[in-house]
Write a sequence for this structure.
């Protein structure tokens, strides 16, 4: 029989194993292709969608997340490919031994089984690519309400790269057991126990007082070290990807919402002349503004808030902090910096400038608690400034090295804040310096932080105080809620993506569990032949599944969360609901995996013992 | 579920009584579209303490009979009654307890569990029967000594020769001191020296008064038998 003919005949006759491996590998490719395509589309769409709605740093968080998810899905897919292919090809060791024993040359045997490997890998690539593209299309068509897109953008290069990585990994790692098997003496390869990868290093019995099924499962787990370690490795990577996707998205959602809440100020009331308050509202709601900005003279005396009014408003019971500001718009210019690098003068920056919202404030009284790179202003800062993220990135090359000029005064940049106001195009300067420069003695804008428990009383008192003046007040909380909805809608796209990846990974793992249980079929036959009831075999398989999933779950989830929290999301905020989600999802995943492992176990429990033993 | 038999391996029914009764046993195997008749209306009776050999060419149905007596498989038709229990009507839980306490099975391909050492393979059968921890430690040592493998207790099946694995399989089958021993081709894959060790073990079983059913071609084993059954194409010729 010719090499190729034998290869296909052999594959055809291992119908169940071949189908299962092709399904598992196709699912890997599907998951990789669809995740990369969806992440790529998210990556493309979010900046387009978010420009004009979110500041630069917010957009960077989203895009960074999409990129990391895409890369990690490629890594996880490659590892799963390695795992399934090497597991499937390891089964051929005995057959290779037989073919060599009956006179086939090592090269003929290797050629025949390499043909099988190529067939499996190529078929999976074709099925997986088609299914992945189709799934991405449906995902985007059906779930893209939140992030409008012009349809699925297929990046052929990304598909090509994914396929090359997958095929290379699958082929390389699939060939390793074949090459090893060819080198094994036929007599060893034919030995029934050779295949099972039992570790002979320790024959010491594991002590456990936890019952029979536990002891048997523990022993198997410990002594099939190679198989156990590779399973745990594969599951850990898959689960860490899922952790980044599910828990990471949850934390990222809460964190970015918190950035926003703290940037705007929770339980804060803005007070000023009607025009000034309208202007502030305009800058705060810029993402949803449809009307043009009106031009006003911020320094007009009619906008001044009398000191007496500020004192009265500050003294209302329930007011925690009063933050009186000088609010205006101004041209903020970049000041290039000359530095000596390697004994050469290097100019950092240019002569860029932009119109921005400028606040003069007393740092001690500021109601904002921005997420900030660098530091906030303090009492000693006379010529220092905090810039919003967009302003800093638009006009400065190196914010902490350069300085800015406002009204002819130079200010060193000490902090860059994630600021939703005017989409991050904002500068905060010491009020004393700004007032002196502009010869302005009074403020035109007041922010009050209030005790939410005394909200109604405070609002009533403010109303009384402002009665008969041209001043008005607005609460900032409704604006925070509006913006939270926008963030929520973007992160929900990631959540759907992550759930999709989790489901695909779970399907792959189910296939893996099935293959592993089938591999041990004969041993469950022996256990039952010795007098174990079917449910005992079931318990042993379940305990093994719990062992493996618990260890992989712990490792995978920890790595996933660590990557999300330490590298992807700056200063993560973890709320109670976030903790619940982070605890619940690994438990659900582990539960699902354990339950899915019961299917092959149930099949074994129902199978006649004689039939199980015939696999020996 | 528990069964009662005396500690010396004999059941409470008394020596000489029929303990295994097969009535018109038929067993069919489906191989693709083809139906293979492994047993064709076979009937037999085996008494307590009897040493019976079943001889016949490959594919005659020897292993199938052992599987049916041991409750590993069910007949397509007919009844198999052991100690008065019709195994054909019994559920899996009953059969599991029956195999654990009443039958010691020695498989042709040994069927040791690859991840357990020789000693653990023996202890495994004891653990299944729920015996005390003390006994689980003592009994394997005792049995492995009996089969001459005291020094190989901590070796895995893959580290043992075929003959040694066969002896571990005997030790495991004897772990719960079952009244019936079913032995499938025990010397088929062994050299003359190792085969004679196995014959000695079987002789010991006979002396102990166990009911032993052996599927074999080995003349030396057949010499031990009280009765030799000749199986041809699924039917018996005594």
């Amino acid at each position: 029989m010719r090499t190729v003919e034998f290869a296909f005949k052999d594959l055809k006759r291992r119908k169940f194993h071949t189908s299962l491996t092709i399904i598992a590998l196709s699912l890997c490719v599907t998951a990789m292709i669809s995740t990369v395509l969806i992440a790529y589309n998210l990556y493309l769409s979010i900046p387009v969608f978010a420009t004009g709605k979110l500041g630069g740093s917010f957009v960077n968080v989203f895009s960074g997340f999409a990129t990391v998810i895409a890369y990690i899905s490629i890594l996880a897919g490659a590892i799963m490919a390695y795992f399934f292919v090497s597991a499937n090809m390891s089964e051929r060791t005995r057959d290779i031994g037989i073919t060599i024993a009956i006179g086939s040359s090592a090269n003929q045997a290797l050629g025949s089984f390499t043909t099988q490997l190529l067939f499996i890998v190529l078929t999976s690539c074709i099925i997986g690519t088609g299914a992945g593209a189709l799934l991405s299309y449906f995902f985007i068509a059906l779930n893209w309400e939140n992030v409008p897109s012009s349809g699925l953008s297929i990046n052929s290069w990304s598909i090509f790269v994914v396929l090359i990585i997958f095929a290379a990994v699958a082929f390389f790692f699939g060939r390793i057991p074949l090459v090893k098997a060819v080198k094994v003496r036929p007599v060893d390869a034919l030995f029934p126990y050779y295949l099972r990868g039992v570790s002979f290093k320790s024959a010491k019995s594991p002590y456990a007082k936890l019952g029979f099924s536990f002891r048997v499962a523990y022993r198997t787990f410990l002594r099939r070290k190679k198989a156990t370690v590779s399973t745990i490795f594969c599951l850990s990577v898959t689960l860490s990807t899922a952790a980044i996707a599910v828990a990471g998205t949850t934390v990222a959602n809460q964190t970015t919402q918190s950035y926003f809440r703290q940037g705007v100020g929770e339980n804060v009331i803005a007070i000023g002349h009607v025009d000034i308050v309208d202007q502030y509202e305009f800058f705060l709601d810029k993402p949803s503004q449809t009307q043009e900005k009106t031009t006003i003279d911020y320094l007009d005396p009619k906008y001044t808030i009398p000191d007496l009014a500020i004192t009265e408003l500050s003294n209302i019971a329930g007011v925690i902090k009063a933050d009186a500001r000088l609010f205006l718009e101004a041209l903020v210019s970049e000041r290039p910096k000359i530095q000596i690098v390697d004994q050469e003068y290097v100019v950092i920056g240019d002569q860029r400038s932009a119109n921005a919202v400028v606040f003069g404030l007393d740092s001690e009284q500021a109601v904002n608690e921005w997420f900030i790179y660098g530091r906030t202003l303090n009492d000693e800062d006379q010529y220092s400034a905090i810039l919003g993220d967009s302003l800093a990135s638009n006009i400065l090359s190196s914010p902490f090295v350069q300085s800015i000029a406002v009204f002819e005064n130079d200010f060193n940049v000490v902090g860059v804040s994630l600021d939703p106001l005017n989409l991050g195009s904002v500068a905060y300067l010491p009020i004393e310096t700004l007032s002196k420069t502009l010869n302005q003695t009074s403020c035109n804008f007041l922010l009050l932080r209030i005790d939410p428990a005394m909200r109604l009383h405070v609002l009533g008192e403010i109303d009384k105080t402002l009665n008969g003046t041209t001043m008005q007040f607005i609460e900032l909380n409704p604006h925070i809620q509006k913006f939270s909805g926008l963030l929520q809608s973007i992160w929900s796209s990631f959540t759907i993506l992550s759930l999709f990846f989790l489901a695909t990974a779970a399907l792959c793992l189910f296939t893996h569990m099935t293959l592993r249980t089938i591999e041990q079929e004969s041993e469950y036959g022996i256990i039952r032949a010795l007098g174990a009831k079917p449910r005992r075999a079931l318990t042993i398989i379940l305990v093994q599944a719990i062992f493996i999933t618990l260890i992989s779950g712990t490792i995978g989830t920890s790595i996933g969360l660590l990557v999300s929290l330490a590298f992807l999301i700056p200063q993560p905020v973890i709320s109670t609901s976030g903790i619940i989600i982070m605890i619940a999802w690994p438990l659900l995943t582990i539960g699902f995996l354990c339950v899915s492992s019961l299917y092959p176990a149930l099949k074994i429990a129902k199978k006649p013992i004689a039939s199980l033993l015939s696999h020996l | 579920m528990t069964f009662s038999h005396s500690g010396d391996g004999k059941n409470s029914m008394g020596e000489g009584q029929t303990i295994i009764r097969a009535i018109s046993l038929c067993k069919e195997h489906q191989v693709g579209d083809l139906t293979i008749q492994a047993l064709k209306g076979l009937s037999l009776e085996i008494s307590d303490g009897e040493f019976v050999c079943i001889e016949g060419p490959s594919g005659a149905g020897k292993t199938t009979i052992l599987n049916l007596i041991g409750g590993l498989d069910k007949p397509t038709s007919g009844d198999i009654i052991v100690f008065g229990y019709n195994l054909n009507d019994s559920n899996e839980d009953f059969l599991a307890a029956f195999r654990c306490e009443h039958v010691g099975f020695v498989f042709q391909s040994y069927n040791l569990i690859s991840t357990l050492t020789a000693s653990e393979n023996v202890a495994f059968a004891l653990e299944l029967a729920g015996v005390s921890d003390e006994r689980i430690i003592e009994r394997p040592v005792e049995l492995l000594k009996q089969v001459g493998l005291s020094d190989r207790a901590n070796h895995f099946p893959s580290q043992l020769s075929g003959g040694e694995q066969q002896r571990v399989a005997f030790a495991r089958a004897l772990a719960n001191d079952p009244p019936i021993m079913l032995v499938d081709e025990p010397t088929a894959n062994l050299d003359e020296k190792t085969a004679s060790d196995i014959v000695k073990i079987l002789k010991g079983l006979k002396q102990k008064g166990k009911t032993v059913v052996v599927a074999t071609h080995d003349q030396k084993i057949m010499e031990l038998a009280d009765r030799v059954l000749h199986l041809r194409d699924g039917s018996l010729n005594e």
User: Anything to note?
Assistant: Helices of chain B lie at 62-69, 92-102, 118-129, 133-146, 162-174, 192-207, 219-222. The domain at 18-111+177-237 of chain B is CATH 3.40.50.300 (Rossmann fold). Strands of chain B lie at 18-31, 34-47, 51-55, 77-82, 85-86, 103-106, 180-184, 211-215, 227-232, 235-237. The interface with chain A takes residues 67, 70, 72-74, 92-93, 96-101, 105, 107, 109, 111-117, 120, 124-125, 127-129, 154-159, 172 of chain B (CB under 8 Å).
